[in-house]
Write a structure and sequence with these properties.
heterodimer, A: alpha/beta, D-Maltodextrin-Binding Protein, domain 2, 2 domains, 9 helices, B: mainly alpha, MetI-like fold, 12 helices, 77% helix, disordered C terminus
Chain lengths: 256, 278
């Protein structure tokens, strides 16, 4: 009998909060008067976490909840009814998908720009000096698939430089390229400048000249179904303002 | 007053509430498939499917998942035997260790495989240095990633069967002069046949659907490491319609195989196991 009762207590302890949270999320929680949910491209993870902390200093009651993922995944989630107030894309084409689907209120505005670098192992042991070196057959090069923003950018850069590269892998997201280089499985890849910065001392960057490099936009918009459009707008204004821009610059983003 | 409740039962004697709950479970699994079928672009389906990239990914998926299943059987059955039959210190720990990849997020599993078998890994650095053998970014790497996540499903199933098996049949065979190998082949194996078949099917299905460990450890390149799940995921970004068609093909293939196995292999193996009984 006693073990049965204990089991019951355990089950209630485990499943009780789950049931409560399922019911509560739709009316209370993050979507209530003092909160917004921001769906942001995963390359913004570190920068936006800091931006939100700074935003909270001025707006102590405003709870900012993030969902970081690839821009394409976020578009799918929002189109399928995920409760987002703000969407930040890592490129214009994914924002356009959401705008075309009629899920966005008003016009998107750019909050940052990003550009590309060659990511190499710490200390650049292969002595990679530029894009042309990526064609060397002895190098293990990984790129993003052309279907994701970093791969699209990398393809353009290689085309601009007239370089043909045979990559070992076409990663589904930029962090996949970073992981393969930081673990030493690959010698080099093309990623965003901000990704090299985020990798810290585990990797190094080799600059790509401006004349062949590609610059991408980070557009932001309030969704049509936003529960708290006023606070969403305040958050966007903060990101676009001097304090937000200073934090983004610190992580390697360029001003819009 | 105590009123005796008459529980409603179906004709076969199964309580109605069991049927109701089971029906909910069936719907839970069926509805997403129905959703895919509902949204599938049937007019373009054939064109999407016969694209070179799709066929290449499908062929690679088939080859790799079958290899992973084979490796799981070769190494998994002895492992299950060891865990079920041999008493040794730290057996629970070894079992838990071998089941770890079931709970490990596959992407983390892929990174862990790097640390073990990658170019800078514990063992991998020697494979690279001594044999010029590199597993990441190769088809062999896909097989390894799939085996890593799939084998536990076979081990769990076979170990459970070995535990439940009455060892007196094996003892009798041994007493009558059968060799260990003969006993295993003619007594043990037929008895655990259904479990081995079920475990293999589970492992194969898991290998076929494997995504995270594969893309992390083996990367994604058409023809060498891009299996169906990877192709489906990447297609979702640009061409969701094609992704749905490819996913449906995977479902259709595994469905056909699992149903066929159920009817031919499982039941036949089941009959054979009963024949062993004196």
């Amino acid at each position: 009998m006693r073990t049965k009762r204990r089991l019951l207590v355990l089950l209630v302890a485990i499943f009780g909060p789950l049931v409560a949270s399922c019911g509560g999320a739709s009316d209370g929680g993050a979507k209530g008067s003092g909160g917004i949910v921001v769906f942001a491209a995963s390359s913004l993870t570190e920068a936006f976490t800091e931006v939100a902390a700074a935003f909270n200093v001025i707006n102590p009651d405003a709870k900012v909840t993030f969902n970081f993922a690839g821009s394409g995944d976020l578009v799918t989630q929002i189109s399928q009814g995920a409760p987002a107030d703000v969407f930040v894309s890592a490129d214009d084409s994914n924002m356009k998908k959401l705008t075309d689907a009629g899920e966005v209120a008003g016009d998107p505005v750019a909050i940052a720009k990003n550009t590309f670098e060659i990511i190499v192992e710490k200390g650049n042991p292969q002595g990679i000096a530029g894009v042309a070196d990526l064609a060397k057959p002895e190098l293990l090069v990984v790129l993003c698939a052309e279907t994701v923003p970093c791969g699209n950018g990398a393809a353009k850069i290689l085309k601009n430089s007239n370089v043909t590269v045979t990559p070992k892998s076409l990663e589904d997201k930029v962090k996949g390229v970073v992981a393969k280089v930081t673990t030493g499985e690959a010698d080099a890849g093309i990623v965003f400048v901000t990704d090299v910065k985020a990798a810290g001392d585990k990797a190094a960057g080799v600059e790509i000249p401006v004349d062949v490099n590609v610059v991408t936009n980070y557009p932001v918009a309030i969704t049509k179904q936003a529960a708290n459009a006023a606070l969403a707008q305040r958050f966007i204004d903060f990101v676009s303002g001097s304090q937000g821009q200073t934090i983004l610059a610190k992580y390697g983003f360029l001003a819009p | 007053m105590i009123r005796r409740r008459r529980r409603s039962t179906t004709r076969s004697g199964v309580p109605a509430w069991v049927v109701a709950l089971a029906a909910i479970a069936v719907l839970f699994f069926a509805l997403p498939v129905v959703g895919l079928v509902w949204r599938a672009p049937w007019s373009h389906a054939w064109a999407y499917l016969t694209e070179d990239s799709a066929l290449t990914a499908l062929r690679l998926s088939m080859v790799c998942s079958l290899w992973a299943t084979l490796l799981s059987i070769i190494f998994g059955v002895p492992l299950a035997w060891l865990l079920a039959r041999v008493q040794f210190v730290g057996r629970s720990a070894v079992r838990a260790l071998c089941m770890m990849s079931m709970v490990l997020p596959p992407v983390v599993g892929g990174v862990a495989l790097f640390f073990a078998l990658g170019r800078r890994g514990i063992v991998g650095q020697y494979l690279d240095r001594w044999f010029d053998l590199r597993l990441p970014f190769t088809t062999a790497g896909v097989v390894i990633a799939q085996t890593f996540v799939a084998m536990p499903f076979l081990v769990v199933t076979v170990e459970a069967a070995l535990r439940q098996l009455d060892t007196s049949f094996e003892d009798a065979a041994r007493t009558l002069g059968a060799s260990r190998w003969y006993t295993f082949r003619r007594v043990t194996l037929p008895a655990i046949g259904p479990a081995l078949a079920a475990g293999s099917a589970l492992a194969w299905a898991r290998a076929l659907g494997e995504f995270g460990a594969t893309i992390t450890f083996a990367g994604n390149f058409p023809g060498t490491t891009q299996t169906m799940p990877l192709a489906v995921y990447l297609a979702l970004e640009t061409n969701p319609e094609q992704a749905i068609v490819l996913a449906l093909v995977m479902i259709a293939i595994s469905f056909a195989v699992l149903v066929a196995l159920r009817d031919r292999w499982f039941i036949r193996a089941g009959n054979e196991s009963t024949r062993v009984q004196p």
